[in-house]
Amino acid sequence: MSGVRVLVGTRKGAFILTADGKRQNWSVSGPHFGGWEIYHLKGSPADPNRIYVSQGSSWFGQLMQRSSDGGQTWETVGNKFAYEGTPGTHQWYDGTPHPWEFKRVWHLEPSLSDPDVVHAGVEDAALFKTNDGGQTWSELPGLRTHQSGPHWAPGAGGMCLHTILIDPSKAERMFIAISAAGAFRTEDGGASWTPINRGLRSEQIPNPEAEVGHCVHRIAMHRSRSKTLFMQKHWDVMRSDDGGDSWREVSGNLPTDFGFVIDVHAQEPETIYVVPIKSDSEHYPPDGKLRVYRSRTGGSEWEALTNGLPQRDCYVNVLRDAMAVDALDTCGIYFGTTGGQVYGSANAGDTWAPIVRDLPPVLSVEVQTL
Amino acid sequence: MTIRVELPAHLRNLARVGQEVSVDVGGRATMGAVIDALEASYPMLVGTIRDQSTRQRRPYLRFYACEQDLSHEPPETLLPDAVITGKEPFLVIGAMSGG
Asked: How far apart are CA A240 and CA B51, in angstroms?
């Protein structure tokens, strides 16, 4: 492995940041699709030159782009996301039934083995799949038509399916998360789904321990341990060691357990990272200090990582898809902020430096180890 | 007949064309037929002007021609003579916005 390529989605375009394995000198290309919202872009693990992009705007709707040369050139691919059958209703903010309406693609998860296969998580929450490199998309309706679907409700950011994890040991097993329905697991490639929210407690819903209705912000998994999942919920950092069948809180000594991102060190399955955010009404770091917290014990015991990060007057947010780790021996960590900075650490979080400082608000960060 | 169509900047970039394109419309030169022809010539524009499911004009876009706002007219509305004869373009306009 000789380098990394960081894929950054922003409110006004996509940017690609590349460096060699030292990760000290960076080149920046972009904006790609200038002026468009890029919710997410991600490369195929099976073919790193294949990159998929969710491109959209309030004016012109959803578009999809694909590159076959590592982001040098792009090709517009299919953008028709039609729910199977009659979509029915989910719960609206005021508790009334509201028709399912496609709004945008939040997250793309390419297959681990086939560059033409990609899953897409969309708002209003549903899972789509392409088998032809993005030319056509079909819904996997078993999720949306789960018996709990009519009770799902949007979070403040919309009713989005924002997390898709594929089990490396069994591709038919996937985990997804929806704000604000919770986490679900499939064992059959998406045909049927089981809510996996036991142990979550959310005071914001009528039954704090309900089977669905939890505002899960993000789930992360180490590729070698698909039974162990880590979750940043609206409030609370959680852990499961049984594939989501049960969860326990591992917020420990965090200054606040609200936040959006969570990720796992590429080489150390018990080393995890979060960025605490003050509260659900104050979306910025506590005390104006941007701190990544690392736990080397799989949660509960956390240390603040501050070297190179602003420790005064910092009031940015880090959104749920805006942290990623590379797979180099000394694990690199990357995250983007709503202030347009992308920070990187080439030593597992011990020290940080901005790769870029003045991008549009960052929506997503992914990294490819080349 | 050939209809001149002006597109907003983002759609010009997407289709990799200049400010104005020309599309051939067979049969009646209605607004709907022009958008059909535009999408056939530039498939990357499918879904950007009309919602793919409802076929309705996207709410932040407007259709103008000959200093008239045709946005709320039905798709089967015939275009003005000046557009049909090529003297004037059919305009697809994005709503103004800051930010």
From this structure: 41
